[in-house]
């Protein structure tokens, strides 16, 4: 069959609706009674922040398409306008589900444990006095009453700011049915969750404090109605790089403009007075379908602040654990270790420290001549940045690509770029029109036998904070061919070099799509010849239309395809003659699955590749991405073993159904396996085995032996 036979709209799920289904899987974790209570609350907060960003970017993009009259349908046959209507219906349902999860489940269960979020009428006398003092001494000087009338226009409201709208009357309006309109912004400079005295774990929301005392800001007026509300704005950035003489200045300019984007969503309390509702809708220029009536507190991200302030109750959170690190990293030069063999890291089960140590040793080692690195997202206090600056101070040739367009990290990355430049590093911003999303570090070292290149390549960012809860894979290697490729990649990024070919590494947008197509074609040929054909892939999102069509072609030819897709999946399973050989799993659990694995049976050769790229059009066509092979046998076997464990997970896995829904596996009569809990528990065993110096080939142990014949009956949070 030819791939164009798989282009029918009914063969695809809409990208945005698939994302909403993913956020609903996260919401399921908040409703899962097997998760510790405070962790369930955290999951609920995550669904709120996810949804906020969805409106900031995805909904905003569709609105722009509608505004300019763009009506071309997506692969699923939905126009932008049709998508917006479907999104509104799905997200209204989700918002109601979020609110009920908090008000009917989580908050009552917390209250049973005497962890209370109180209203003013529930306070003890001591707590009333505390709140009274807090308002008058802390809040009152900061709050600003904002009346709205012909001389005082409706104020600008920042994205995601929380505000109290008021309808009030004044003596001069006696007998007049009209009411004055005013607002007070809840100050973001304070924690929204206020800890109360007179008992442990007693809290109150700052917005409730302001509402209780708001009359003192409008002396002489009578408060008739109040309503809390929040606006979500278009936060997408439109940077025309071809027209920008200075990309950094253009980014800084766009950051200022972004704050004034059009309102995408208005959240209001469900019992809001109709006059206030109409006033807000008109002033903010939103449609009725963009108004979300919330049955409970607006903006559930406050839950994160609440959880952090709860004292005691360790049993309500996931148990802490210690990530593994081979003691050899602390005893030897990391370059000596890499020269002997490739080294594999699986975060967060393995510590991120070796990655930081790689950069630290490069900064201080007299034999190191140059250090080159790509940075997409780093932490606000990144040790890697400090070591890069130290390397420059020590006379190394330091080249750093800082991606200024990393969404919502633009301001942070502009800061780091300026810091690195001041320290003497050569800072570049990538290629015009492309984001650089690859994760690559190259160290050039002069040794007795000549120049040697050392590399670190990974599926995740050089971020020491997210490395604690994102699952990612990384590889240290001194493979000469990969070293040449890495040098060519940096030459391409920093100059005008166009390498004619690469030895081992594959990059997008030049080649990852075609490279994967070739590997898929190999499996198709094997299946048609009656040989075993198997494709195993793990990624965050699968939405590239051409890639999905290619997987359909492989499935139709008889190739068995196993996909682990955490988030968006536009592919459909169970289509007769098209996708009957495709199974899709999604793992949503304690840790955020972020690694990308692409594996092909290849007539028993079992080719394994790791990558920074998801199978999305933006990754394959509009970003600089990296895909690298795993050539060392023990590491390749370990990754296949890990994939097998993930595929065997039956606790946190949902399986995509033919109707587009995701269902948990039936656990009746089977042993339970939570793969994340299992890998946390066995991190040291797995690490000790892999990191011992490889024995002769015939003596190498089977690294798959840790796949349990009988999986643990309990997850780590139940131990």
UniProtKB/TrEMBL annotation:
EC class: transferase
Keyword Metal-binding among record annotations: yes
Signal peptide per UniProt: none
Binding site residues for ATP: 50, 470, 566, 594
Residue span(s) of domain Polyphosphate kinase N-terminal: 12-117
Taxonomy of the source species: Bacteria, Bacillati, Bacillota, Bacilli, Lactobacillales
Region (Disordered): 696-719
Membrane-spanning parts: none
One GO term (biological process): polyphosphate biosynthetic process
Reactions the enzyme catalyzes: [phosphate](n) + ATP = [phosphate](n+1) + ADP
The keyword Phosphoprotein belongs to this UniProt entry's keyword annotation: yes
Function: Catalyzes the reversible transfer of the terminal phosphate of ATP to form a long-chain polyphosphate (polyP).
Gene: ppk
Key words of the record: ATP-binding, Kinase, Magnesium, Metal-binding, Nucleotide-binding, Phosphoprotein, Transferase
Family that this chain belongs to: Belongs to the polyphosphate kinase 1 (PPK1) family.
CDD domains assigned: PLDc_PaPPK1_C1_like, PLDc_PaPPK1_C2_like
Domain Polyphosphate kinase C-terminal stretches: 333-498, 505-676
Protein's UniProt name: Polyphosphate kinase
Superkingdom, taxonomy of origin: Bacteria
Binding site residues for Mg(2+): 377, 407
Cofactors demanded by this protein: Mg(2+)
Post-translational note: An intermediate of this reaction is the autophosphorylated ppk in which a phosphate is covalently linked to a histidine residue through a N-P bond.
Domain Polyphosphate kinase middle, chain residue ranges per copy: 127-306
Source organism of the structure: Lacticaseibacillus saniviri JCM 17471 = DSM 24301
GO molecular function: ATP binding; metal ion binding; polyphosphate kinase activity
EC number: 2.7.4.1
């Amino acid at each position: 069959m030819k791939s164009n036979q798989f282009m029918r709209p009914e063969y695809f799920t809409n990208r945005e609706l698939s994302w909403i289904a993913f956020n609903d899987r996260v919401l399921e974790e908040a409703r899962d009674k097997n998760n510790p209570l405070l962790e369930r609350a955290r999951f609920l907060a995550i669904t709120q922040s996810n949804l906020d960003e969805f409106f900031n970017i995805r909904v905003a993009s569709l609105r722009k398409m509608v505004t300019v009259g763009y009506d071309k349908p997506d692969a699923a046959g939905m126009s932008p306008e049709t998508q917006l209507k479907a999104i509104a219906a799905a997200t209204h349902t989700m918002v109601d589900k979020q609110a009920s999860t908090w008000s009917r489940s989580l908050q009552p269960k917390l209250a049973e444990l005497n962890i209370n979020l109180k209203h003013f009428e529930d306070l003890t006398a001591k707590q009333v006095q505390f709140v009274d003092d807090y308002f008058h001494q802390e809040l009152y000087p900061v709050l600003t009453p904002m009346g709205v009338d012909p001389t005082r226009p409706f104020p600008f409201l920042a994205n995601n700011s929380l505000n109290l709208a008021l309808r009030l009357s004044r003596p001069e309006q006696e007998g007049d049915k009209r009411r004055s309109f005013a607002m007070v912004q809840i100050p973001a400079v304070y924690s929204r969750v206020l800890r109360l005295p007179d008992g442990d774990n007693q809290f109150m929301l700052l917005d409730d404090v302001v509402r209780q005392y708001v009359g003192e800001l409008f002396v002489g007026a009578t408060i008739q109605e109040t309503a809390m509300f929040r606006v979500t704005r278009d936060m997408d950035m439109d940077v025309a790089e071809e027209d920008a003489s200075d990309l950094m200045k253009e980014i800084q300019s766009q950051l200022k403009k972004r704050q004034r984007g059009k309102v995408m969503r208005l959240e209001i309390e469900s019992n809001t007075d109709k006059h206030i509702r109409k006033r807000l809708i008109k002033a903010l220029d939103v449609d009725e379908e963009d108004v979300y009536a919330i049955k409970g507190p607006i903006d559930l991200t406050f839950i994160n602040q609440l959880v952090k302030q709860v004292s005691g109750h360790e049993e309500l959170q996931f148990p802490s654990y210690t990530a593994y690190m081979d003691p050899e990293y602390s005893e030897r030069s990391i370059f000596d270790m890499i020269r002997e063999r490739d080294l594999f890291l699986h975060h967060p089960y393995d510590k991120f420290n070796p990655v930081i140590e790689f950069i630290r040793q490069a900064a201080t080692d007299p034999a190191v001549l140059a250090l080159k690195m790509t940075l997409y997202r780093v932490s606000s206090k990144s040790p890697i940045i400090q070591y890069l600056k130290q390397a420059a101070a020590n006379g190394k040739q330091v080249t750093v690509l800082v991606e200024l367009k990393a969404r919502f990290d633009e301001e942070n990355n502009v800061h780091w770029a300026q810091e690195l430049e001041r320290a003497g590093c050569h800072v570049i911003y990538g290629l015009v029109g492309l984001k650089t999303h690859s994760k690559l570090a190259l160290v050039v070292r002069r040794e007795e036998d000549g120049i040697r290149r050392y590399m670190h390549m990974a599926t995740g960012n050089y971020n020491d904070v997210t490395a604690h809860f994102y699952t990612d894979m990384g590889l240290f290697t001194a493979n000469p061919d990969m070293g040449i490729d890495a040098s060519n990649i940096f030459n391409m990024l920093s100059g005008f070099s166009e390498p004619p070919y690469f030895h081992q590494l594959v990059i997008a947008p030049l080649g990852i799509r075609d490279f994967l197509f070739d590997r898929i074609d190999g499996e198709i040929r094997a299946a048609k010849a009656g040989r075993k054909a198997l494709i195993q892939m793990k990624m965050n999102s699968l939405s590239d239309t051409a890639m999905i069509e290619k997987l359909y072609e492989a499935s139709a030819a008889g190739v068995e395809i196993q996909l682990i897709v955490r988030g968006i999946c536009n592919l459909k399973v169970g289509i007769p003659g098209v996708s009957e050989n495709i199974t899709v799993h999604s793992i949503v659990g304690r840790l955020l699955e972020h690694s990308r694995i692409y594996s092909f049976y290849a007539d028993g050769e079992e080719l394994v590749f790791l990558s920074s790229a998801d199978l999305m059009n933006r990754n394959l066509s509009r970003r600089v991405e990296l895909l690298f092979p795993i050539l060392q046998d023990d590491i390749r076997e370990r990754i296949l073993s890990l994939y097998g464990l993930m595929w065997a997970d039956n606790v946190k896995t949902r399986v995509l159904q033919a109707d587009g829904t995701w269902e948990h596996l039936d656990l009746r009569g089977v042993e339970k396996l939570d793969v994340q809990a299992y890998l946390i528990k066995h991190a040291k065993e797995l690490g000790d085995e892999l990191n011992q110096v490889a024995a002769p080939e015939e003596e190498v142990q089977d690294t798959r032996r840790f796949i349990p014949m009988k999986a643990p009956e309990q997850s780590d949070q139940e131990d």
